[in-house]
């Protein structure tokens, strides 16, 4: 009995000391990019880069629903830039969707791919995860990649860099790969 208790105490201390000593992980590659979402609002068809494609009962496809937009789904094809300027030359497109999925605050579920085609970067990076929009920074999973990002995985820290009503927002995406496949 006494031996069992001391074994448990020993293991608890061992686990505690191991987690205390864990070093921060070091990324094998990092990349910071911005993307810009202009939401269709009924009179910006030429300029819009995203569209509401689903709304809950009582809502419509030109205005985000009440109750923290719960039930809205938007599909986007957004320009990606190297800096925070909407008018900078795009280096690719962010393509995917977001789903507003909480009735009591603003959160969404993001699933999208960065399609990059420049001399610096060619290939795709795919992201998925929960986006608690009201938090200053949010981490989502980088689930995979192709081309220059063949078999890459990691974490992306997302920050809302600008927000203009329900028409425009800009996200800063700080990508850190911890798994970089290379020859
Ligand atoms: C497109 O929409 C954005 C965001 O609302 C705005 O800043 C920009 O001036 C618009 N561009 C044109 C050509 O209307
Ligand atoms: C969509 O809903 C909003 C708010 O309820 C309303 O102001 C707008 O006129 C509706 N748009 C259409 C096209 O029905
Ligand atoms: C990438 O850009 C080049 C040059 O503009 C073009 O020929 C090629 O089709 C593009 N590739 C993809 C996958 O879009």
From TrEMBL:
Transmembrane in keyword set: no
Superkingdom, natural source: Eukaryota
Signal sequence segment: 1-20
Gene Ontology terms: cellular component: apoplast
Matches recorded under InterPro entries: Allene_oxi_cyc_Dirigent (IPR044859), Dirigent (IPR004265)
Subcellular location: Secreted, Extracellular space, Apoplast
Keywords of the record: Apoplast, Secreted, Signal
Pfam families recorded: Dirigent
Function statement: Dirigent proteins impart stereoselectivity on the phenoxy radical-coupling reaction, yielding optically active lignans from two molecules of coniferyl alcohol in the biosynthesis of lignans, flavonolignans, and alkaloids and thus plays a central role in plant secondary metabolism.
Family classification: Belongs to the plant dirigent protein family.
Subunit: Homodimer.
Protein name, entry field: Dirigent protein
Encoding gene per record: Vigan.01G046900
């Amino acid at each position: 009995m006494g031996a069992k208790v001391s074994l448990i105490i020993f293991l608890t201390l061992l686990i505690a000391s191991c987690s205390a000593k864990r070093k921060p992980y070091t990324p094998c590659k990092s990349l910071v990019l911005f993307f810009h979402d202009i939401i269709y609002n009924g009179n910006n068809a030429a300029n819009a880069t995203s569209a509401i494609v689903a709304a809950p009962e009582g809502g419509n496809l030109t205005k985000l629903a009440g109750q923290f937009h719960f039930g809205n789904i938007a599909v986007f094809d957004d320009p990606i830039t190297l800096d925070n300027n909407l008018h900078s030359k795009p280096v690719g497109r962010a393509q995917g969707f977001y789903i507003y999925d909480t009735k009591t605050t603003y959160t969404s579920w993001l699933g999208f791919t960065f399609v990059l085609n420049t001399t610096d970067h060619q290939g795709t990076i795919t992201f998925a995860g929960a986006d608690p929009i009201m938090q200053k920074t949010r981490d989502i999973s980088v689930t995979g990649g192709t081309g220059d990002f063949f078999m890459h995985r990691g974490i992306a820290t997302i920050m809302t860099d600008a927000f203009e009503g329900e028409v425009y927002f800009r996200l800063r995406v700080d990508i850190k790969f911890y798994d970089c496949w290379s020859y």
